[in-house]
Each structure stands twice: as structure tokens, then as C-alpha cells.
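Quick log. Single chain, no ligands specified.
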Amino acid sequence: MIVKKVGEILIEQELITQEQLQQALELQKNIPDQTIGQLLCKLGFIRESDLRFVLDQKNKRPELVDILMRDGLLDQPKIRHAREIGKQHNIPLEKALIKLRYIDEEQLAQAVATQYDLPYVTINCRDLDVVLSQYISVVYAQKHRIAPISKIGNTLTLAMSAPLRQIDIRELEDSIRLRIIAVIATESDIRVAHQQLYNVANAGTTTSASDEVNLDILPDSIVDLLSKTSLGDEPDIEEETKKVTEKDSVIVKLVNKIIYDAYVKKASDIHIEPYPGKKDVVVRTRIDGQCSIYQKIPYKYKFAIPSRLKIMADLDIAERRKPQDGKIEFKKFGPLDIELRVATMPTVGGLEDIVIRVLSSGEPIGFKDLGLSDRNMHVFEEALKSPHGLVLVVGPTGSGKTTTLHSALATINQPTRKIWTAEDPVEITQPGLRQVQVNARIGFTFATALRSFLRLDPDVIMVGEMRDEETAGIAIEASLTGHLVFSTLHTNSAPETVTRLLEMGLDPYGFSDSLLCVLAQRLARRLCPDCKESYQPTEPEIGEYIDEYGQEDFTLSGIKREGLTLYRAVGCERCGHSGYRGRLGIHEVLDCTSQLKSLIKRRAHTDSIYEQAVTDGMTSLKQDGIIKVLQGLTDIHEVRRVCIK
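-> predicted structure:
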């Protein structure tokens, strides 16, 4: 739209004079980001509602894509691609542009503001007065995606994601007996404003024809879904992608059913594995640490399922050559309020594997429920009471390190202590903790976060992982300067952790002075309490257990070999006939005593550190596991599976 034409139209309608237009043009030289219409309103020469009415009547508004192209945000190839995606998935062009990440929500809102000659605002929800909610009902605000954000005198400022019709504004003005000034804001800002003003959860998430489908009713079985379609020839990538829609379809229900079943069965991960040729897509789930095949799906869905998941995670569905990662808020698509982490990996044949991580409930488990033995609990609790120092929790991926750390933090999480955490990702949240998520792609690493924390006057710091010497070095410095620091490391045992950090190049004197304790852990499957079967072990079996525990250590443990009762897995409906339900922790806790500190300063070998730790009372992972076998919590097969000798 040419600026002069706006002025000419308004002069023709006798709404402004030539002199007033000239003043606005002069002012625009100093404020080039404001349109003539906005400046005329700002100067008081014309009302916003009159300006919008005239422009709408004369059909002189520019197209949204023209504004975005003029601002250098779009070009013709991107617009063509977005139109094609919009048609395939039956969504407006604007939503397609955002899904393809050609523009963001703020850029779209600014373009809408320019299109309608309205101001664009960023809503500061903390400054919103809940009294404003009396002028606009929550139902009307959610339906029209508007929010009252300020009132001065008899004028109410109303933020909108898209302008209301002039007739609607006039009816609203008559209803509330106030003059309305319209401004444009992002939909996200308006949703947050609804939560602040009306104290409602998930405000503004009602679906429309162009929004995500929320399936409240899931099919009884995947077999029912798959039976609705017949197999054809080898699918074409583009043809299969076009079948993925955000409306009611077999693909949408299929993906929702997979996620729903995984959640119900308490799976931690879902693996989507397509194969080249006419081979079925294998879907596996990891339950209690073990993968098993959940379903085999006909090969015709091998492109459609990954594409659907990428749409849900706001990933680029056209990119199949490199890995991507994102997250899904499943409440937008299905009947569960859970968060999913999605990672894609290109595989042979132009295919993609998808791994979905089902995040935990977000609440820390009780410290007493960690399953620590009396000695291990005492050492760990003493470390938590220390005003400064370093506490490490170690083990392989998926061994429950973060859960243990959050349970420990919950015991010291008090208003008198400032606690910062840096995690990747933030899975468990607690009121009182200040939590941040690192993002290595933008340079916000654990080391960067840790440095920043030290400028924020913390008492306690948790670093998700000490991946390198820089992070470890800063953590030790922080622990020596009056902070209690928690972190994790990927090592096999507590004694190995000490030598691993020394091999990283850490100063042994600073490290030994800062270290309080190291807790190594594994997760073993727990015997199903409803179907486990008791039995009396034979003498050779008891002898085998004692050999694995260690003859001398078993004698010192005080456990009597006579009258032992063990349990074995059977299987029932409650545990899915596996004989196991849930998991329990197996631990070893190295207490950094003065003797151990001396060994660290001398850079002693792992064997020497292990011997000293045992002398100080440490039981190994295997020994702790065998004790839990004798307590009837698990069986020896699980302990052998997760523990090294």
C-alpha cells in the first residue's frame, strides 16, 4: 500500500485535512516504523475505529504476505511452500508460515498491526490488574482471542490477535459503556493474560477448524485402526506426507494411540523404526528399562508417522537429511496432559527413526523412598547438611541420577536457601527452585550457566552434568567458595568417578577439599508384589550368592545364611505377565573421608581408592543389589544385568 493513498482516501472522506496529512508525513520522517494511519491517530486527527472502517470499506488494506515480503521476511518460494503445506494440512497460510518457521509469532503480529494500522504491544502480564476482567467475560475473551490490558478514564485498551469487526467493537463499547482502543498482540501473550486476569488454566486453547484436534476418545486397539486401510504399492514420500493431516484421520488416531498406550503402560521411551522396502514399521517401548516390541505397523505408514510427529513437535517436515529435536505438549492433541521430547535421526533409504521420551510426572519422589540403605542414607544426609562442597551422583544414562538429585534438593529446599539448577532438559520442577534449561546450539552450556549462577548470589547449585574439564573446574571453584554444588557424571562406579575427574586435569588438592561424597546408582526391575513367589534356596545357590557378595564381606555384614527366603518372578495381569513392576535403586556411596582425601591428593589408582572406600564402610553396587535380593525386592538376574562385577 502506498502511504499517500491512505491520506488521499481520508481527505476524500473529509476525515482529515491536507495540512493534517502533511504534519503526519513530517512526523513519519522521525518515526519511520509508524504508518501514516497510526500517526494520524496518535496526533488526534482521526479515531482508530474510523480509520479502520474507511480502509475496510475502500478495500485498500495490503495483503499480509505483501507486508512480510516488503519487510524482507518472506520471498515467493517460501510463500508457495507455505500455501502448499496449508492446503495439505487444511490450515491458514499464517499458521503454515509459523509451522515452517519462516516467521515467528511476533513478526506475524507486527505485520497484522501494520495491515490494520494498529499499534503492536508486548503484554507485561505481571502489571495486569485483575479488575480489568470485569469488563470482558472470560468466554468472550477466549472466543475472540482478546484481553483487556489497561483502563485510563473511560477508555479501555483491548489487545487482540486479529482485529474485531467494527460492528463488534461498537456493540462492545455500548455494552461496557467505555471507549475501546484496539492494539495487536501475539496469541501467546493473550493466552498468558487470560491466565493472569481470569485465573484459568490452559486459557485460550479451545480448538477451531484450523487448530489441532483434541481426541478425547481413542480407538480400542491399533488393530481396529489398521484394519480400516488396505495395503497398496510401495509408497511415495510426497504422497505419504500429504496424507498427514491435523484433522480426523487414521494417522492422527494411530499416533495418539501409540502415545496413549505407552503412557498407560508407564513406558519411558517410544521408538519408531521404519525399514526400507516393504518391511513393517516397528514400534518399540521401553518399560522399566527394557525395550520390547509394542506393535508392527504396515510399511505404507513409514513416512506418514514421522511426518505427523514432526508436525506435532513443530519440526521441519521437509528436512529429512539431518537430526532434529523438539517437544510435544500432548494436551493439544490428545486426552493426556503430558510433555514429550522428540528426537529424529535420518536412516538409510531416506527414512527417519523417531525416539519419543515420555517425561516424568514432574514431581520429585520422597527422599526416604529412594531405597538407600541406612549407612548410605546417613552419609548422603550428612553431605546435604554441609554448607558447601561437591556432591556427585553417577551412573549410565537412564539410571535415575536426576530423580535422586531432585529428591535430595527437596530436603533442603527452604525459603532461607537460594537454589539454582541448570538442566537438559528440565523434567522435574519444584516450587522454590530457580531452574534453567541449557541450549548448546546457542552457546548456553552448563559451564556458561554455572558462571552466571555465581553472579546471582546462590546458596545451592545443581549442574545437570559435568561433561568437560571447564564445567568440572567451575563447579569445584564454586564449592570451595561457599556453595553446595550437586552434579552428575557418566561413570561406572563411585571410585572410578574420582580417577575420571583427576584424568580430566582437575587440581587434586582443590578437588579433594571440595568433594563430600559420590553416589553411584543403577535401576533394577522390582519383583511384582502381586505375583512374586517365595522359595527356599538350596545350599549351592546360597553359596553362589555369598561368593558374589564376597566371603569376608558377607561375614561382616551380619546376614545369616540359615533360613533365607528368596523370591522369583511369576507373572500376572498387573505386571503384564513379566513378573516385574516398577524399579528400585541399587547404590554405592563413597564417603570422602580424610584418608580418601589423602589418596586423591596423591592421584592414587582406582583400586586404592576402592579399598579405602570399602574400609570406610562402602558397599559396592553388586553387594547392595544382593542385599535387596535377600530382602525380596528383586532377583539376582536383575542385579547381574545392571551391575558390573
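The longest strand covers residues 515-527.
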